[in-house]
What does this fold into?
Amino acid sequence: MKRRLYIELENCIGCRACLAACTQCGGHEQRNRNYVYDINPFVDTQTMPLMCLHCEDPPCARSCPAQAIQIHESGAVLSAMAEKCIGCQNCTIACPYGIPKFDEEQNLMYKCDLCIDRTQYDIPPMCASVCPSNTLQWLTEEEIENKQRRHDLDNGKWVASMPPLENETNVKINLPGILQGTEKLF
Amino acid sequence: MTEQNKPYEEDNYTHNIHRNRERTLDRRGFMKTMVGAAGVFAVSSLPWGGVAARELWNFADDEDERQKIANVTDVPVGESFDFTYPTEHDSALLIRLAENDYVAYQNACTHLQCPVFWEKESWEMICPCHHGYFSAETGEPTGGPPRRPLPEIELQVQDGTIYAVKVKRYEA
It folds into this structure.
């Protein structure tokens, strides 16, 4: 059963458990690979997590001159292969979401790989499995469709990655109502 | 992601970003291909090596067939006689230099294969195309473009008949 990461941004309570989980994840060496933004600092407490959206046509991978960023068959865009990455940071510039991070010491790019060592065996990615407010969810296509349908009924203005943010992505996002000027009804 | 739902037509192996294709054209795969091709070429050249070894170490005692050329009475001293040897496509030239001195050469000029003929007056073999000259005694070129001698044919004279026995191996 193919599952996708689904981000329900409005649920985020800013606990940063996802960051902590990512930091502790195996092979990440104390570096987290996602972000929690304060949307409107000094005004309200709204926060949003953002990790790699795993584009169908990833600019980071296409811009890599060494083919160090690879696409897994599940659609996940993997972190740079250590033996191929030449540290040119093209991917960092190319990504419209500013996702790939660069480690100056190792001269190596690293980014969210959707916990491919877990998700390829259908175990939810670390961030989703620890999220206490269901902001990050690991859902089947069917469940995502049901959610979208429900929200469409309740609120005509609701969109989930539709129209696509920058291009088609494997991670689906439910934009928070505060960005759309509407309130989501549960 | 499948290949079908890509937003553009591109199957570009120089941009090999799909992990399933990681091994299709990487450096190691390329080296394997090169070494494999070298191996194929090496193996396929073995028959030629066999042919060369056969020739060089005389494994082949493929004597040319003994063939009657002419009767002694047909060729006066100083005259020549055309024949073909060892096959009907290899034209050759027999010359009687003295009473008991016969020489024969395959008469395709070693420059560009024009037929060489015997010029009794100058006592030389001449290629008319580019004025190549060959010594009748040895077959060596004495002038003109050719640089290699004419292939010599060994002869036997028995009972008033001249036979061609074999074409001498070319020694560089």
